[in-house]
């Protein structure tokens, strides 16, 4: 039976994310989103700006929630682009880590679970991190799109 090692939650106002994106239309998404997230974001934002804002907000919240769940905050090896929330084939969001963060995490924790939601004014994310014992060794999710 898996045990919980950490829980993180974050709530963000959509207009705050929208204003940051308006001030820095290229730099803000590139600072926050990983390579795969950035590809999805650009496609959604091209279809509808509000979908782009919602995607940015929920991914921002997921990164904040994850950093709280593992107890790092936004300090090394945690960095925005090293933690991505990607949808698996069925649509379920999955945590995908890279670089030094993935290596640091795999030595300390088991699987991470993320849930995202958004409404007109807010985006939110909730992350649960399992303990290392009784857990698979890798946190990267194969099959993530």
How many structural domains can be distinguished in the coordinates? Answer: 1
Main sheet: strands, sense, barrel: 3 strands, antiparallel
What is the helix/strand order? Answer: EHHHHEEHEE
Count of extended strands: 5
> Beta-strand percentage?
25-35%
Number of helices: 5
Amino- and carboxy-terminal Cα gap = 29 Å
> Which outline best applies?
globular
Tell me the CATH topology.
Ribosomal Protein L22, Chain A
| CATH architecture designation | Alpha-Beta Complex
- Gyration radius from CA atoms, angstroms: 15 Å
What does this structure look like?
There is one protein chain. The chain has one domain: Ribosomal Protein L22, Chain A (Alpha-Beta Complex), CATH 3.90.470. Helices cover 40% and strands 28% of the residues. It has five helices and five strands; from the N terminus they run E-H-H-H-H-E-E-H-E-E. The protein has helices spanning 14-23, 27-32, 35-47, 49-69, 99-106; strands at residues 4-13, 83-87, 93-97, 109-118, 122-131. With 145 residues, the protein is an alpha+beta fold. The strands form two sheets. Strands 1-5-4 form a three-stranded antiparallel beta sheet. Strands 2-3 form a two-stranded antiparallel ribbon.
Q: Can you summarize this structure?
A:
The chain has a single domain (4-131), classed as Alpha-Beta Complex (Ribosomal Protein L22, Chain A), CATH 3.90.470.20. 40% of the residues lie in helices and 28% in strands. The protein has helices spanning 14-23, 27-32, 35-47, 49-69, 99-106, and strands at residues 4-13, 83-87, 93-97, 109-118, 122-131.
């Amino acid at each position: 039976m898996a045990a919980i090692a950490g829980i993180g939650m974050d709530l963000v106002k959509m207009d705050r994310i929208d204003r940051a994106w308006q001030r820095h239309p290229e730099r803000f998404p590139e600072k926050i989103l990983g390579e795969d997230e950035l590809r999805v974001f650009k496609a959604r934002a091209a279809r509808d700006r509000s979908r782009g804002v919602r995607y940015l907000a929920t991914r921002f919240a997921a990164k904040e929630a994850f950093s709280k769940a593992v107890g790092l905050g936004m300090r090394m090896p945690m960095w925005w682009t090293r933690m991505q929330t990607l949808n698996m084939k069925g649509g379920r969001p999955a945590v995908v880590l890279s670089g030094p963060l993935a290596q640091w995490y795999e030595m300390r924790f088991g699987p991470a679970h993320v849930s995202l939601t958004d409404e007109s004014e807010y985006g939110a994310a909730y992350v649960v991190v399992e303990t290392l014992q009784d857990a698979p060794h890798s946190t990267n999710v194969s099959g993530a799109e």
